[in-house]
Amino acid sequence: MKMKTLKFTENKTWFKLDNAAKIFPGQNSATWSNMIRISINLKEEIEPEILKTAVKRCLPRFPSLDVRMRKGFFWYYFEKNQKEPIVKPDVNNPCVRIKYSENNNYLFRVFYYKNRISLELFHALTDGYGSAVFISTVAAEYLRLKGHDIPSGGMVFSLDELPKDGELEDAFAKYAVSKVKAKRPALPTYHRTGEKMPKHLSIMTSGYIPVDTLKEKSKAHGVTVTEYIASVLMLVHMKLQRDESVKKQKEVSIQIPVNCRNLFPSETLRNFSVCYSVRLDPNLGEYTFEEILRQVSLYLRYTNNKKHLQSMFAANLGLEKNPVMRLIPLFIKDLGIGLSFALTAEHTTTALFTNLGIVNLPEEMREYVDSFILMPSPGKVNGGRAGAITYGNTMTVTFANRYSNTDIEREFFRFLVKEGIPVKIESNKDV
Amino acid sequence: MSYCVNCGVELADAAKKCPLCDTPVINPNILNTDKAEPPFPKKIVLPKGARTRYGAIIASFLILLPNFVCVITNLLLTPHRLWSVYVVASSAIAWFLFVFPFLMKRKHIYLILAVDAAATVIYIFLFYYYNSAKTGWFLSLAVPITAGVFLTIGILSAYFGKKKNLIKSIIAILTALISLNIFICLIVNIYIKSVIVTYITMIFAVSCLILLIIFIIANKNYRFRAWLSRKFFF
Hints:
The complex is a heterodimer. Chain A is α+β, with helices and mostly antiparallel strands. Chain A has helices at residues 24-27, 48-58, 128-145, 171-175, 211-221, 225-243, 289-303, 306-321, 323-327, 330-343, 363-366, 407-418; strands at 14-16, 35-42, 67-71, 76-80, 87-89, 108-113, 116-122, 203-210, 252-259, 273-280, 351-358, 369-375, 385-391, 394-401, 424-427.
């Protein structure tokens, strides 16, 4: 099958949103922003003017980010943005919803604070991998402009190269060849709620964890780091629900996005990740940590394969390709997406844990970079939404919490400390 | 470098208390934490408000346009019959009810209700004035009923501003409905003695009252609530 790929650099001035991105504009609201925040801590203070030049020089290499959102009659589409990107001082309230008309029409924000560069991207543009590549390339270019000699390699893309067609493809459409469509779980699950923060505010808590100790621990249990952290999150929610002493307990479900580039040979810089949900029913009895670890790791290993992923792509693409759906005007689609999101989506998951994995930077750049931080957007009903990213020997696990009570984070990090894993905490709370 | 005595986690140098458990940080070696840089700035930037006011202004102009055409046509073609008054009045009431609240920068619910009540009374008055001015139902029926309806909405919104308990909300709505119903019945009966209206009112009020009593008992009595959930689970 011949793929229709985007020749943005040649004569096309617009392109379609990828399959996963199509739902994000419909969900965009004050309480559900769908913004990914990724930060890089350098070892020197950031100079905003140089950072702005670096972003401007990087954008032509990333045509899928150098765009503005436009409304068609049936679908949204991206159009090349003709304006200049904006670099702003960082704020206390991360991942605020994006308005398509603000920020010179860019769908990402670039912040600086002390020695940290932060990037907040609307999920319709790309996923965690794409944002990590972009921020690494920007940081490398920034360091180059500061007079350091940084080559390209790993997640730092060369600015001398032209963008490749493969980087702009809708990989979901390419690999959705399965005839079977995966079913989505729709059962309501447990949510740790509390007193909500005012609109547009959330608590961001980052824990810096030494990877070698964490790996050692997870290896001792015979699981991967992702499985280990997801299990801790599951255990914490199980315990919190038990402490609430409700008669009928609800299932606890941890959503784990997986980067499909690991299984499919795609080099796309747009969205290419889907979510698995690991579910456990506390009504079956009290699970020990060992049992949870076993359930989580077995489930992920059993389901995370190409065929299953393809059936998930097929299910998502089926909706998009449905002729009736295609002919519904955009504003009705938006209403429908908003409604279905309000009724299902977050209600079927308890927490989220996304592990971006290891950031691979060129050797020459490593001495200037301290750490990375990844934060998912705060949930509408879920308090525990965590993102992890590893650089060098530091893994940063960051929680985005809509509520003013931080008991999920507290229980989570206390558990790690009890297991003998040292944690350093940073937060935007009470600064 | 400090650690939380409760959680055992290392804290940022600038932390005055643990972000996880709010335990204050007292490190005799680092007495002045003010000098350390906090990991985040204090500044909070909120997104600009939704552009509902622009939408409201555009909607106002859109409403104005057909009205203008109607008035001109009316004055040119049939100057002896002012039928365009109905069109203008209907548009005006629609504007006050559905567009005016969005034009306000800060939404004052009681001001909106007062304006809506006044607009409704004027709207009814126009119909009364052009059709049945001599019957006198405007002052004895329309004004008190409109006032009663809007007053009930006002009291209910004041109540819902504070409490959100489902059973209590249902009790509040039922009480409001019964009171409003009896009030309307009284007003109608003063104007025109009607047995049918009294019967309808009684049927409605009694049904609401039974429900009200059930909900009040359910609210007060845990065992009754448990019995209800046992008998009516689905």
